[in-house]
Amino acid sequence: MPVDAITFDLWDTLVVDDSDEADRAAQGLLSKPLARQALFTTELSTHHPDLAKDALSDAWNIGLARFRHAWKVDQHTPSVAWRIDQALRTLGVARTPGFDALVDAIERMELDLPPQPVAGIKDALDALAGRYRLGIISDTIVTPGRHLRGILRQHGLFDYFDAFVFSDEAGASKPSPRVFAQASQQLKTPLFSMAHVGDREANDVAGPLAVGMKAVLFLAVVDRGSQATAATASCARAADLPDTIAAL
Amino acid sequence: MPRTIPAAEHLDTIASRFAAGFPEGPATWRTVGREAEYPIVREDGTAVELAALWPLLAELSAERGLPLLPKREGRLVVALEGQRFTYFSEVGRGTIEVLTGPHDDLWQIADDHELAVEILLDALSVQGWTLLGYGTQPLSPPTPALMTHKSRYGVLLQVLGDPWLWFTLTASDQIHASVRRHEVAPLASICNLLAPVTVALCANSPIYAGSKSGFCCARESHMGQIHARDHRHGMPAGPFQDIREMIGHLARQPFIMERRQQGGVWSYQPGALSFGTWLEHHGADPEATGRQPVYDAFEFHEHYIWNSARPRSNHGTIELRAACQQPWTERGLASDGHRRADHMAASALGVAMICAGADLATLLQRRLGDTAWHQMRHWHQQVIVLGLDAPEPVPGLLGDVLDRCEAGLAARGRGEERLLRPLRHRLSTRQSPAQRALDHFDSGGIDALIDGLAIR
Questions:
Q1: I need a surface site. Which of B100, B128, B150, B190 has the fewest CB within 10 A?
Q2: Which segments of chain A have a pLDDT < 50?
Q3: What angle do CA A70, A72, A77 make, to 5 degrees?
Q4: A181 CB within 8 Å of a chain B CB
Q5: Which CATH number does the domain B7-253+305-453 belong to among 3.90.550.10, 3.40.630.30, 3.30.590.20, 3.40.50.150?
């Protein structure tokens, strides 16, 4: 069955995860995990000076742990607000006056100082866009879909895509079959005529294969296990993607 | 020097013999039969060991004046056969199949089926076990340990690998209806094309191994992975113009295993690339090399091809296989003052598709045109994931199909169309059994799921 549409993972497929950390360091900024926690701690300490730093740290980590459970076990990605609510519940306090601003600051962090695109990806998308309908299927861990669109716009990548399935908007995360089914609907293309490109075996290979798609393991940023992949094909450079897809 | 018979000529002969199982002449009254599989679980939700139940089932049936005879494969009891129903072991050691029919109508099937389940529930209550109106084992994962000890199952595992193990979990609700010879190809084709209708309305296997699968019909999804490129399971690649073309499709499938005889003992061996290849190599005189006669080998091969609609030559029926086992009662369905048998919903849909086959073919041609197979295959993948949340290929298609199915059953004059009421209810609420099973699971995990699906 020929491929008519391709979906892409975003992190480590279109943009390089944490490639913004070097820029942050150069600007004297904390790393993203520390910066997020610091924002939370500052907000809570301002309104609840009686709360100990350790208690705030523990509560923050509980929020993160509950998020990870929802993501990895229940296959959905709750919002940053939900995560902070979990922390506040642990502390036994209500939302603070700066809650919305806190959420916004955390969610915008990667929009304000964005990660870099994968080398050669724009040229590859340029070559593929004329031949296939293109979409993105991405889990949103901190930065929500609406800001990920902004990052894509900043890099001139947004207009290549006809479909966007971000887990915070879809209500499910990879490898849930629901995200692939939603992409199929948006692209108006049957799953059996689609291929997915991504870097993680469970999410980007097993997930699409289970719903009848083809899967390309993308190794340009990191090789997480190409020796034992079930993927239809592997691809080591963005420049090779057009040929890899054509040969599926 | 004996003439070497080409594979194509063998296939002609096979097709003729296969066709002979279906009577010629105009369509008459259709008899029906049901093969209903059910998962059985312990109090903790894990799969039981069905074999432990045979003596008690035989005893309780005999007490009701319904003696059952054990059927064995070697030393293994594989079934208890009776006049009104038969209990059969399945691939999964914790799954039981209840066979009823052939009968004249679905109400007669319901009578015998309810009697069989009543006795089964009595036996299970002694053990403290639970029968589920569900399409898969909910907690036990698919493992070789869960597979019934039949030697051919071991060969299937060896050849197919882990995907075969899904059969150790799954429980489908299959229905047969008799057909005439000229109906075999067109009705099998339209029923295969309608597989997504069945999945949309009857999907009931979203949770297995104690977790949400992300599929409404994990059963169809996972079994569809077996030789997916060859369309071995679910919808075939397209319609069949006649029985010969269908036999050709079956012969192109990988020949998973064959029966071989050595020293007077039959065993199972991994098979050839395809049945057609086997025919080319051994079709001339298979018995001389300890192999089965050609037609027997074909029947054995064909038994392990699982398209959604399968003509069964030895019964003269078409068997419909796309439905998961159904909930025993339809939650939220109001009484209409008549007898109910909600557990028959998928059976009624299957028989209705066969009875209304010609009208349904016209409907799909009118609504979907020449791309019907492409659109329905696309929808098939969507409903397996999303159930009734999946957009229909054209608005109102499911309702139109049910209209014609109701008319098809009503024309039989036995009131069987009332058995479709649960499906109307599902369509109006846009909730398949799978979506309700997910509600149970979300409300209280595996315990709530089992409680909600238990047949009492």
A1: B128
A2: none
A3: 45
A4: yes
A5: 3.30.590.20
